[in-house]
Amino acid sequence: QVHLVESGGGLVQAGGSLRLSCAASGRNFNNYNMAWFRQAPGKEREFVAADSGSGSTTFYADSVKGRFTISRDMTKNTMYLQMNSLQPEDTAVYYCAAGGIIPSRGSSYVYWGQGTQVTVSS
User: Fold this and answer.
1) Cα separation of 83 and 1, whole Å?
2) How remote is the C-alpha of 113 from its chain's centroid?
3) Could you report the per-residue pLDDT of 27-73, keeping only the tens digit for each?
4) Can you give the chain as a three-state secondary structure string?
5) Backbone angles phi, psi at 89, to 5 degrees
6) Residues 76-114 pLDDT 10s
7) How far apart are the C-alpha atoms of 114 and 9, rounded to whole Å?
């Protein structure tokens, strides 16, 4: 079966950085979209960033563009999210998703991880 496992979340102060990882197993997603979504308390899930795989086309939400960088290591079937200049508004559970038809649409993704908590203090 397919599993996606996130790691790298934690508590940081505003202005700090974190690097999230998403390790996929059970299927090679090199030719499929993978993405990061997040959900803050009391808020709906929102798109953060996506990578198309082959071709390395990337997509970012306006709120994180210039601060976050998505990347993938195809040899390890792993996706990363480098988060710099973190702000309290970035506090959320971050979810890894794979197999989406539309990069920024969460409902199009087939596989999801359990999430990793990112908390940014002011």
Assistant:
1) 30
2) 10
3) 999 889 999 999 999 999 999 999 998 878 999 999 999 999 999 99
4) CCEEEEECCEEEECCCCEEEEEEEECCCCCCCEEEEEEECCCCCCEEEEEECCCCCCEEECCCCECCEEEEEECCCCEEEEEECCCCHHHCEEEEEEEEECCCCCHHHCCEECCCEEEEEEC
5) -65, -15
6) 999 999 999 999 999 999 999 999 999 999 999 999 999
7) 12
How many whole angstroms separate alpha carbon 107 and alpha carbon 98?
11
- Cα Rg of the chain (Å, integer): 13
Longest Cα–Cα distance in the chain: 40
**In Å, how far from its chain's centre is CA 35?**
5
Residue 23, both tokens: 């390790």
